Structure formats: structure tokens, C-alpha cells
Amino acid sequence: MSDVISYSTSGPVAILRIQNPPVNALSQAVRQGLSEAMDRAEADVEIKAVLIVGEGRAFIAGADITEFGKPPMEPNLPDLCTRIEASPLVVIASMHGVTLGGGLEVALGAHYRIAQPTARVGLPEVHLGLLPGAGGTQRLPRLTGAEKAIEAVTSGRQIKADEAREMGIIDKIEEGDPQEVGVAYAMDLISSGAPRRAISEMAAPSSIDWDATYDGVMKKGRGQISGGAGVRAVQAASELSFADGMAAERKLFTEMLASDQSKGMIHAFFNERAVSNLPELKGVAPRALQSIGVIGGGTMGAGIATAALLAQMEVVLIETGEAQAAAARGRIEGSLSGALKRGKISQSQHDALVTSALTVAVNYDSLSTVDLVIEAVFEDMAVKKEVFGKLDAVCKPGAILASNTSYLDVDEIAAATSRPADVIGLHFFSPAHIMKLLEVVVADKTAIDVVATGFELGKRLGKISVRAGVCDGFIGNRILAHYRTAADHMVLDGASPYQIDRALTDFGFAMGPFAVADLAGLDIGWMTRKRKAAGRHPDERVPTYIDKLCEEGHFGRKTGEGYYLYEAGSHASVPNPKIPVLIADEQAALEITPRDFSDEEIVTRYMCAMVNEAAKVVEEGIARRPADVDMVLLFGYGFPRFRGGPLKWADLQGLDKVLANIERFAQEDAWFWKPSALLEQLVTSGRSFDDLNRAQAK
């Protein structure tokens, strides 16, 4: 018998216990062991029922991700589920923890399902650009109906036990040891003469408006195709025999597995976990991290404070005056109330956070005992240096001094203190208690245990933490500035900001660059252009038409007018009629004859600019590896997850094709489109960005 499946009996019940820590993933050994254990149970004339149960913290959490991309090994999962379901014995799955993906498909292959009250089930394959491929789209709708099955398959969400029972997925909920309650349930079924109950033999789900459902799922997915494939698979369950439906599901699954979208999403799945594991931090203990200070209680500072409070940390927030302090407390309490309403914290936890864990003060001396301080003040070097000088004077020895700067030189900030080894950049994204990305910016003199503490903070806050070096904008904002400039150039040359926004949302971005600029505030870009004007390269093209809007006091959504117009209290927007006039005036002044752009050219130029600058960021060591760039763009900048990130996208396009486009664009603007030396080297050597990722992982 397999080492990962233990076989025992309790009277007429054979117990198949899965022992594949940490989460009983469905490796080849597990699949083979379950199949062999079923054979053994059926060969024993004393056995009337089979109980499948998981050891440890889960029933089965899904497929074995280490097998992704490798040749399939027998028995495959669809055959195992069919083999379990076809048993002449009564088969019961006793579920606890999570039962996800292939794990739920195994459970659906059983004839009855019992679960712990805290159990959760789901089919999350859509998050890998896939759909269930072992009967999930054929069996589930026979229990739940088509609409509920489609929602489960296309959302990939985890469903709590109570809801799963209401949907018909779970037959019984009972608290206790999963094996003990499972055996008792099996004995009840045997004594009552309960029959085998194969889902494949149940009635097919009723028909719905399949095309409308498909269109709705595709629209919601903003270009991701696996959700639509899931709808068509459930449609097959309704319209075809079970065997033909299984064949249709498998065909769709195979198509999705071979798609670039699945490759992109699998890349994202692996690397969002890998980017925080830095080899140089192995064995390095972080410093104490129980209490933090936050300087500034605006949107960013309040968000950082809220995130820390929700992570059970003590927070001291400093504002410049009593009125500002009261406003900051109000922002934080509002966010915590939202967490309470969503069930993230209990009422008692909420009350403790706002009464004892949070201190709002106006005196820097209140920071004398905190372990780490994060400043979130105005993005001005003189202001930052003044704050760090004060922190240097009041913070205890060993306290970490962190800047939330988006662009500024962390080395210069550190030099304003007597303890540069204790200084680090922690670049949060707003709203900080919601956005997942944290850039950990390591300055020249930052101590290694300070770096470790930065990553430990990110872990406690539930962030995707990425190491960044010091340069203007670090990883994300440096690349953003470049691809946003490419968009600005296209506007000067004839493309409408609104066509660009539409083309890029069709590509999969949550928002286009001009809508994003309105949301962030046009004054940010305006201020950056003024800051960088003195050192600007003479060949750089810098559109100034939007500055005229800023000079009139219009900064986007927060003032009601930007590239779009915003009604009070509304996120809905319409194009601002002033913008085409301002653009036309600048085109005339620069003697530019505007031309038409296709959506395809817009996407190509935008993406090539992003890839070229991203390659330079890796080339210079600002990002350690290409996957770091991909995760920054995915989690901080709305890059479509199903494309994996800009450098994964480039690999999938073919680096030679991307470089050829960049070289073609360079004939128009040699300074802006100068190809990355790293990109040229990779093309010459026939290597990819993924090759660099694998080399770094060794």
C-alpha cells in the first residue's frame, strides 16, 4: 500500500486516510494509492462502505502544483474520480479544512459527503486560467443547478460548509474528529440501507440562457477566457450525456491548459509566493516588531495604521495638530468599522483596536518606544529630511525608520540621520489596508536585519513584498512613468486619451492610464514633471497640455474635473471637452500632424515601453529578477493577472518580436526607445526572462 494512503477498517467500513502533508495535494502517489485502496476494499467481502478522509489540516487542497508543466502520470484525476464513483460500495468523503479543486472533484466522485462546520469547499481553477477538468463542471451542476455551479466555477471562491449544504454539495455537517464522524455516518448509511448515489446518474441540470450567461462572465472577466470556458462546460452538462459532457469538459480544460493565459496565471501563482523569499535573508532574524509609529494621518498614513491594527500591532500616529489628529482618527475608525461590517473582526476586537491599540498624538516624543516608524508625509525631500531628523532624535536605539516615499532617494533621506543602517523604504500602495503590494526599498547602508524586518512586516500585513533598489520611482513608479510617457506621446501624435483607455481596458487593465491619472490626482504628475525639469534630457518629449488644466486647479476625480468630468459623489465619468482642445493647441505649437492609431498599435507601443523599461530595471539590479517586476505590476498597477506580468507577456509574445518593435519605434525617437541591453542579450542568446527567474531560484 502507498505510503501516502493508510488503510484500516472499522467493522464494515474501510478507511482510506490521505497522508500527504501539508495539505494532502493530489500527487501521483496519492491518486495511485487511493485507486489501489479502493481495489483492496472491494476485494474484502466484509466491507460495505469506504470512507475517504484527510490527515492534518485539510481534506484535499487540490492538485499537486509541482506536477504543473510535466507530462501527465497515471492514474489521471478524471479516471480516479470515475473509478471511485463506480464502486459497488457506498463511498463517503469526510471533509475538514479546505476541499478545493481536484479535492472537491474527488469528493463529488463519492456517493455521500459529510463536513466539519468550519470546512470550506471550492473550485478555484479559474485563478490559474483553467476550469475543473475531472468532472467538476459535470457533477456539481447536477447537485446545485446550472446557475449556482457557474457562479462557483467562474468565481473560484471558497464556499463555507453551511452554504455548501444549502447548495446540495454537502449532505451533513457534524463537528468532531473527521474520521470518527465519517465512520459513524457510514454506519448510519449502512444500517439504513442507503444506496450508492452516483452524481453522474442524476438528472442533468435544467437549461438557462447560456449565451447571455457566457457574455456576462466574459465581460466581468475583462478578457480572461477561462470563465467563459467554464460556462460552456456546464452547458455541456445540461445538453449532453454525462460521458459526452466529460469529454467536452476535458477538451475545454486541455485548451485552457495550453493557453497563454493559463501560463501567465500559473506564473503569477508561483511567483507571488516566491518574491518574498530572499536567499540573503535565510537565517536572518528580524528585529522586534510589536509597535509601530506612523507620521501623517492622511489617506496613506491612515491606511498604513489600519493595516497594522488589523495585524494586531500597536500603533502611534502623529499629526501636526489636534484637528488633523481627530480627522486621522476618524479615517482609521471608519476603515475599522468597515472591517467589522465585513466580518473581518469582531465587535470586541474593534473596540480594543480603537480604544487601546491606537494612539493618535501631536508630539513626536510619543514615538520613543515604538519598534518601527513609517513616515507618510508630503512627497518633498526637505519635508522628509525634517521628519527623519526629528525621528532620529526621539526614537529608541534599534528602532527602524522607514519612508513611504514613492520616488525620492532613500539614501539621501537616510543621510539626514545618524543611523542610516536603520533606514529603509517601505512603499505602500493606496489604500494601504487593501492594496496587496509593498515595495521594500533597500538603501546602500540598510542593515540586513532591517531588510528582514521590512519583509516580516509585509508578511504580517498580508502583503506581496518585493525587494527594490534605489532609483527614481523604484520598480513600479519608474516603469509606470515610462509607459505612461508612451501613452502621452501617442496622444500628441494623434491617439485620443479615451481610445487609449478603452484599448487598454480591452487588453485587461482594470483602468486606462488617463482614468488612473484622474484617480491618483493630476497634481502628482504635474509636481513630478516640475521636479524633474532641471535634469531633463534635451531629447525628451514632455507633453504639457494637461499642466494647463492643473494650473486652473483641476486635478482629476478629487476636484471633479480631469481627463474626465465627475459628478459630485459619483465615480461615473464622461470625457472632458477641454482635453481635445488643449491637445490640438499643443500639436499646433509643436507642428505635429496627428494621425490615426489602431487599438492594436496602442497596446503594442504601451506594452513595449513597459517591457523595455522593466528590462532596464532588472539589468540595473533595481529588481533582482524579472518575476519581481511582474508581481509589482500585477499587485500594484492593475496589470491583468491572466497575462502574468509584463515580462511574462514578453516571453509569451517572443522576445525577438518585442525587440523588433522597439527597434522600429526607435527610428522615430531614438532616445525614448533605446533598447535595453539585457533584452538585446536575451534575444541574441535565445534565452527568456523565465530563464533568468529559474537561474535566480537556484
From TrEMBL:
Leader peptide range in chain numbering: none
Family, as annotated: In the N-terminal section; belongs to the enoyl-CoA hydratase/isomerase family.
PANTHER family found in the cross-reference section: 3-HYDROXYACYL-COA DEHYDROGENASE-RELATED, 3-HYDROXYACYL-COA DEHYROGENASE
Lineage top rank: taxon: Bacteria
Protein name: 3-hydroxyacyl-CoA dehydrogenase
Keyword Lyase on entry: yes
The 3-hydroxyacyl-CoA dehydrogenase C-terminal domain, residue ranges: 473-566, 602-687
Gene3D superfamilies attached to this UniProt entry: 1.10.1040.50, 2-enoyl-CoA Hydratase, Chain A, domain 1, NAD(P)-binding Rossmann-like Domain
UniProt keyword annotations, A-Z: Fatty acid metabolism, Isomerase, Lipid degradation, Lipid metabolism, Lyase, Multifunctional enzyme, NAD, Oxidoreductase, Peroxisome
Residue intervals passing through the bilayer: none
InterPro entries registered for this protein in UniProt: 3-OHacyl-CoA_DH_NAD-bd, 3HC_DH_C, 6-PGluconate_DH-like_C_sf, ClpP/crotonase-like_dom_sf, Enoyl-CoA_hyd/isom_CS, Enoyl-CoA_hydra/iso, NAD(P)-bd_dom_sf
Pfam families: 3HCDH (PF00725), 3HCDH_N (PF02737), ECH_1 (PF00378)
Pathway entry: Lipid metabolism; fatty acid beta-oxidation
Catalytic reactions on record: a (3S)-3-hydroxyacyl-CoA + NAD(+) = a 3-oxoacyl-CoA + NADH + H(+)
Record localization: Peroxisome
SUPFAM superfamilies attached to this UniProt entry: 6-phosphogluconate dehydrogenase C-terminal domain-like (SSF48179), ClpP/crotonase (SSF52096), NAD(P)-binding Rossmann-fold domains (SSF51735)
Species name: Sulfitobacter guttiformis
Sequence ranges assigned to domain 3-hydroxyacyl-CoA dehydrogenase NAD binding in this UniProt record: 292-468
GO biological process annotation, one example: fatty acid beta-oxidation
MF (Gene Ontology): (3S)-3-hydroxyacyl-CoA dehydrogenase (NAD+) activity; enoyl-CoA hydratase activity; isomerase activity; NAD+ binding
